Structures are given as C-alpha cells and as structure tokens.
C-alpha cells in the first residue's frame, strides 16, 4: 500500500495534499467508503469536461494565522503565502462556477464552502511586490518618504560629483568615485592629503593609504537620509502590521479555505491516479462478497500484466490457489488485498465494470519470507508468529491472505496445520485466500463445502506461466513434465513416478484429465466466441446496408413528393386561371353574342388542354395512336390531353376541327384528337355524360331560392346546390329561404352545421342583402 500512496502523492500539487496522501488509511465505514469513491468519480468526470482546478499556491499558513491572531506581525513571505492561498481559492471558485451545468456532484459542497476574499488578496499583492520588496503604493506615507530619499540621494551625489570633478580636490582623491560606508556617502582620499578634504572619516583601507571621508558639505544631507531610511523602516513595519491585522480578521475563513483546497487537491489527485491506472469505481457490496473482473495489479504495467477474474464470499468463503512457483499465485493474493484496501481509501481500482468489494474492518496478510537472524527465527517460525497475531484479531469482517500457508516445515505436519488454521479462521467468519503446494490442501478444498480450488495456468510447451487464474480446478505441480522438457533422463522420471504414492498419482492423473478437458472446452468456447463475433459483425454490416437502402428510399420518396407537389401546384394555378376567365365570361355574357361566348370558351378549353398536356408529359402519359383516316363531320373523337369525348361538327380548310363536347363548342387541331372506333361507343357515351356533368358544374349559379318549399323538399335541393357550387369553385353563395315562421331558415342552418366539409362560415343577410330572409354561405 505505501507504493500506491507514493503514486497518489505524486499526483497531488500542494505539499499538504502530498502529506495527506502518504498518511491515507482505509475507512471501515460503508457510507464513508461510498462517499469517498463518489467524490473521486465526480472529480474524474469534471476533469473529463474541463481538466483540474489550479491548486498551485496552496501553502500551509495555519502557523502564520495563529501568530496573526495573537497580534504578531507577519513577514512578507507569510503574507505572500496568504495571498497565494486566497488566489487559489478564487481560481477554484471560478473553475467550479464556469459551465458547471445543472448536474449535482459529490464534491459540490467543497467548492461551495470556499470563501473568496479578493479585497484582502489584492491589498496584499498591491503592497508587497516580492519577498524583499514593498511597493511604493503600499501607502501614501511610504511613497512620500521614498520620494524624499531619492531627492536627498540625488542632492548628495550632485554635491559629491562637484567635489570629485573639481581640480581643487583632484590631487587629494585616491580615485574620482563615490561609494558608501556604513550607509553614508563618502569619497576615497589619500591619507597624506586628508586635510585637503574636510569631513568625517568613516573607514581606513587595510594598507592605510586611503581614508574614506564624508565631506562636511554632505554630512547634514546624509543625516537627513539616515532619518528618512529610519522612517521608511517604521512605515513598512506599520504596513505589515496592518496587513497582519487584516489577515487575523479573516483567519477563520482563510484556515477553512486551506483545509478545503487540500481536500480538493487530494480528491483530484485520486482522479488523476484513476486515469493513470485506467481504473474504475467498484460497487461497494453490503454483503461480504468480492468480485473483481479483469483485475490488474496497480503497480504492474497495464500493457504487460495479465488481468485475472477473482471472486470470494458468494459460493465459497475460502480460495486455495495452487500452481508452480513464479506462476502468479502471490501476485493474485496481493492484487486481492491491495484492491480492497485501495477502494476503502476512496481510490478507483484497475478492474472492469461490474466489480464489487465489501468494506473490511481488517485486511490481514502473511506474505513473503520474514526469516530473521537477529531474532533467531526460521522461515516457518516467522510465518507462524504472523499467523498467531492474525488469528487473534480476525472476525467476520476480516480478509485473511496467506502466502505458502504451512510451508517451511514437514509437509505432512505443515499441510495439517494449514487446514486447521483455515478451519479456525472460517469458524470466525473471515474470508480467506491462501496459496500452497500441498496436495492435501487441494483434496481438502475439493471435499469441503465453502472452499474452492484455484490454479495459475502453466504452459508445458514453453515452460512459462500464463498468469491466468482458473477458479474451480486445482493446480498441477508439473514437476515431471518440466523435468522431462529440461532434459532429465526418462528412466529417472519413470523411477520417480513409480515412487509416487498411488493415490497421489491418481490425483495428479485426474488433474491432468481435468486440465485437458478444460483446455478443450476453452478452445470450443473461443471458437464459438469467434463465430458469434463474426455473426455480430455480419449483422452490423447488414444493418448498415439496410440503413443505406432505407435512406435511398426516403430520398427517392422525397424527390417524388416534391415533383408531385410541383405538378399539383401547376394544375391548381391553371385551374384558378381558368376559373377567373370563366367568371369574366359570365360577366360579359349579357353583352356578348353567343359566337363570342363560344370562342372565349374555346380559348379557356385550349388553356386547359395545354395544362393537361404538360401534366401528362410530367406524369408520363402515353400518346394515342395516330389517325387512321381523315376525319369527317359526325366522327367521334377523344381530346388527347383531357380524355374528353367530342363530336366533329366540321373540318375547316386550314385543318382545324370544330367540335361539340356536350353544350360546349371547341376548336382543336387534328393532332390533338384521336378517332374513337365503333367498339368504344358505349364508353364514349359515358365520357360524354361525364363531360356534360363537368360543363354543367361550370354553369352553377351563386343563388338558390327555396321559398315555397317544405323542409323535406328544400334540404336535398340545398345539398345538390352546395355540391354544384363547390364543383364550380364558387367562394360565396346566397340561399333565399324567406322570413315567414323561421322554420325553413332553422332547417337550412342545421343542414349547414352538419355539412362541415367545404363550408367556411355562414350568416344572415345584412341590410341590402335580404336581411333575415337570406343566408350568406362562405365556401
């Protein structure tokens, strides 16, 4: 576990979170473990959406806060640490507030517990530029003092510059430079010429040849400069004291922010480790049951380690693992214990979905060789010392892990002790995992209810372990097979086989038969799995093809719909144009002669013919057969575009035909008609009747007079009238029913309410329309 905690600490940012990582302990409270795992999952989900919060700058300022509360003055480093902590707090709040969505998470309460104090953060950052530098903007007084210091310094340097550049003093000066001694400006003067430069001697060189003299001209200014520096120091201390007092005023919030940020840093470190290990959140079982699917040891490379499936506590409470050395038995035990401990620390574990772990109060293990020369303990003694302590502590909420249980002593006694230790631990309700080489423990597991055998697979051909765990089948030692592969003489191997106990030999043969059967079943299963995967792939491909075909059909249907809609729109536009011309024709009927009316009707039908011809072309209507002979008066012909039957009245000199279609006269070209044979005459009569009906519809009147009719007579007439009006595309009609007793009017209105189709509205007439004696119907 310490190695895992080292990995976790490596993912943390702050030193406090690193320390918390290294001291992490598994929790034995079920609700706490669930909460810890949920927090890790929430952080991992946040990282998927928008990385991790910026935790840099988290410093442990609790000692500084304590001193500030006691009235102490914090230094610049401590105040900068407080500002960095407040900055990290504000950055975490901004991280949480940005695009957080409506979904609640298990770590919302931590982000909401942070206290943003931008005022104090800015105040400290403005006043303190660096650990050794206070800003001039920290206070007005400090700014003024430093301005005076700069002015005094400039004044001193100007005075001294005049001295070192003056010919009067050139012979007395050792060098024409200005330097500082004991915080005061001085010039280097030759010792034998010191009387030439009156002033105070601050220092003499080691050779005695040079004296550093402060000329009397700058003594007073230097004194003022010293006083200004003293004032500057006092002002800086005042500023630091004021900032320290501000920090003390918010000490509780700052301390709380530190603890919350460390907790968040630790949680996000767990999430980062989860990504690194390719781990998932396991289910926390209320029962003492372990189920690890495709589990990996977290310290082994995920690219090379062989995942294992382990379960314990459901059908059996004890798992006895056997197999050759270096086959993976010990790694299996460590994986089992380590993953359970990690989960109880709130860490995700490297398993697949569907895995579950219980919450143990104790995970007790006896692993490795603890032989000690100093304590005079053998391997067996050191193991037994550990086991004695384990058996004294274990209970029904304990997981016990034994590596090579009973090893290091006489095999018969060691096997008997191992069985008794397991039985004692089982009687106390513990879950147990143990590795062994003893055949007696294999037999014990086969014959005991609640105890299961398991083995680590070994490839005889390559003499290498596969590290695959197989539950239900005990491991085979493979000593003879391995020795034979390594070149041991056959006669030695045969002699050894003859010396093996008959029961042991039969047991090993049974194991070999089981192993062969298992391998055969696994081969069949793999083949079946391959066939299933191929079938699923074929099904997937078929679904893709079907999807493409459906899309093509939908596309074709959409194109057909658009074309049909275009055809309908064209036909509707033509019909509306024809109806407008018919209405115009009716208006002119009173003033025009019958010949003019017929000519105009012919023009209308010609328009219809052209529209129908275009419609027929779009719909792919086949042309009629060409005329078999010249047409004469009296022939029956069919208009190709309309399908209407008409009789030839005369054939003009220019080849144009005068046709009679019912009551309408039509002029058409001979290419627009086809001759109707005598066999088609019955059909022709039907077509003529149909055409006459259509033409009569075109002559529908906009007014119906029902006066003098009984109710039973009037309603059928009204219905026929409305049908004719709709066929003629009239938009408004007038029904005259008179005033009288109102019975006929009431029946008309009831009929109109029932006749919903095609009727927009109806109302009684207004003044000038007939008032209550008529009903106006909008179609």
Considering DSSP H and I runs of 4 or more, what fraction of the residues is helical? 40-55%
Largest beta sheet: what is the strand line-up? 12-13-14-10-15-16
- The number of distinct helices, counting runs of at least 4 residues, comes to 21
Please compute the radius of gyration using only Cα atoms: 54 Å
Q: How many beta-strand elements?
A: 25
What is the topology?
Layout: H1 2-11, H2 15-22, H3 30-50, H4 62-69, H5 76-97, H6 108-112, H7 118-127, E1 128-130, E2 133-134, H8 140-165, E3 179-181, E4 184-190, E5 199-204, E6 210-215, H9 216-249, H10 251-277, E7 283-284, E8 290-295, E9 308-312, E10 318-322, H11 329-344, E11 356-357, E12 362-366, H12 379-393, E13 398-402, H13 411-427, E14 431-436, H14 439-447, E15 451-459, E16 464-471, H15 479-485, H16 490-499, H17 502-589, H18 594-619, E17 636-639, E18 645-651, E19 657-661, E20 664-668, E21 673-675, H19 681-698, E22 703-705, H20 711-727, E23 732-736, H21 743-754, E24 761-764, E25 774-778
Parallel strand pairs: 7-11, 10-14, 10-15, 12-13, 13-14, 22-23
Antiparallel strand pairs: 1-2, 3-4, 4-6, 5-6, 8-9, 15-16, 17-18, 17-21, 18-19, 19-20, 23-25, 24-25
Helix pairs in contact: 1-2, 1-10, 2-10, 3-10, 4-9, 4-10, 5-7, 5-10, 7-9, 8-9, 13-14, 17-18, 20-21
């Amino acid at each position: 576990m310490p190695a895992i905690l080292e990995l976790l600490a490596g993912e943390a940012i702050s030193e406090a979170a690193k320390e918390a990582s290294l001291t992490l302990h598994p929790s034995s409270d079920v609700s706490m473990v669930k909460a810890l795992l949920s927090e890790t999952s929430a952080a991992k989900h946040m990282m998927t959406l928008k990385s991790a919060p910026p935790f840099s700058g988290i410093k442990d300022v609790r000692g500084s806060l304590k001193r500030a509360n006691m009235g102490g003055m914090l230094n610049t480093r401590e105040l900068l640490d407080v500002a960095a902590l407040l900055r990290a707090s504000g950055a975490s709040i901004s991280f949480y507030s940005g695009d957080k969505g409506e979904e609640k998470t298990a770590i919302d309460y931590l982000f909401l517990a942070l206290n943003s104090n931008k005022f104090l953060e800015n105040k400290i950052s403005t006043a303190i530029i660096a650990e050794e530098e206070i800003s001039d903007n920290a206070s007005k007084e400090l700014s003024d003092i430093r301005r005076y210091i700069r002015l005094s310094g400039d004044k001193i340097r100007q005075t001294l510059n005049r001295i070192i550049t003056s010919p009067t003093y050139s012979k007395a000066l050792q060098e024409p430079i200005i330097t500082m001694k004991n915080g005061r400006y001085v010039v280097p003067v030759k010792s034998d010429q010191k009387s030439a430069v009156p002033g105070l001697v601050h220092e003499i060189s080691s050779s005695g040849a040079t004296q550093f003299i402060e000329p009397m001209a700058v003594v007073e200014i230097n004194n003022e400069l010293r006083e200004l520096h003293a004032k500057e120091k006092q002002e800086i201390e005042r500023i630091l004291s004021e900032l320290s007092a501000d920090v003390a005023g918010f000490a509780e919030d700052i301390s709380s922010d530190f603890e919350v940020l460390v907790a968040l840093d630790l949680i996000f470190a767990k999430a980062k480790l989860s990504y690194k290990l390719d781990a998932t959140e396991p289910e926390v079982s209320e029962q003492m049951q372990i189920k690890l699917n495709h589990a990996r040891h977290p310290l082994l490379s995920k690219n090379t380690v062989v995942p294992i499936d382990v379960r314990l506590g459901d059908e059996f409470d004890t798992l006895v693992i056997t197999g050759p050395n270096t086959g993976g038995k010990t790694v299996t035990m460590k994986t089992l214990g380590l993953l359970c401990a990690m989960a109880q620390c709130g860490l995700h574990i490297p398993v697949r979905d569907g895995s579950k772990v219980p919450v143990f109060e104790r995970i007790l293990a006896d692993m490795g060789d603890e032989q000690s020369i100093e304590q005079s303990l053998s391997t067996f003694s050191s193991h037994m010392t550990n086991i004695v302590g384990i058996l004294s502590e274990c209970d029904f909420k304990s997981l016990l892990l034994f590596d090579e249980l009973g090893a290091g002593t006489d095999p018969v006694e060691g096997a008997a002790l191992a069985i008794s230790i397991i039985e004692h631990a089982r009687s106390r309700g513990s879950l147990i995992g143990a590795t062994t080489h003893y055949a007696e423990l294999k037999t014990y597991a086969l014959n005991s209810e609640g105890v299961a055998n398991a083995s680590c697979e070994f490839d005889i051909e390559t003499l290498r372990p596969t590290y695959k765990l197989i539950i239900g089948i005990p491991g085979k030692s493979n000593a003879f097979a391995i020795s034979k592969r390594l070149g041991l003489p056959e006669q030695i191997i045969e002699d050894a086989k003859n010396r093996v106990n008959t029961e042991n030999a039969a047991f090993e043969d049974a194991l070999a038969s089981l192993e062969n059967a298992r391998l055969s079943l696994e081969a069949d299963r793999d083949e079946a799995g391959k066939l299933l995967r191929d079938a699923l792939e074929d099904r997937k491909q078929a679904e893709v093809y079907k999807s493409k075909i459906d899309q093509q059909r939908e596309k074709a249907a959409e194109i057909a719909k658009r074309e049909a809609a275009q055809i309908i729109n064209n036909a509707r536009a033509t019909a509306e144009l024809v109806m407008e011309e018919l209405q115009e024709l009716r208006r002119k009927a009173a003033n025009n002669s019958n010949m003019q009316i017929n000519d105009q009707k012919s023009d209308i039908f010609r328009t219809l013919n052209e529209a129908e011809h275009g419609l027929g072309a779009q719909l792919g209507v086949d042309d009629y057969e060409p005329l078999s002979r010249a047409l004469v008066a009296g022939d029956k012909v069919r208009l190709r575009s309309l399908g209407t039957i008409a009789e030839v009245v005369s054939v003009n000199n220019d080849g144009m035909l005068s046709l009679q279609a019912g009551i309408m006269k039509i002029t058409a070209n001979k290419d627009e008609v086809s001759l109707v044979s005598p066999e088609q005459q019955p059909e022709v009569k039907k077509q003529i009747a149909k055409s006459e009906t259509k033409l009569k519809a075109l002559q529908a009147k906009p007014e119906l007079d029902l006066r003098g009719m009984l109710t039973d007579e009037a309603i059928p007439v009204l219905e026929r009238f409305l049908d004719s009006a709709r066929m003629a595309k009239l938009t408004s009609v007038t029904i005259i029913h008179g005033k009288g007793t109102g019975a006929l009017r009431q029946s008309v209105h009831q009929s109109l309410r029932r006749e919903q189709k095609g009727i927009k509205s109806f109302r009684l007439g207004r003044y000038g329309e007939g008032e209550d004696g008529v009903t106006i119907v909008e179609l």
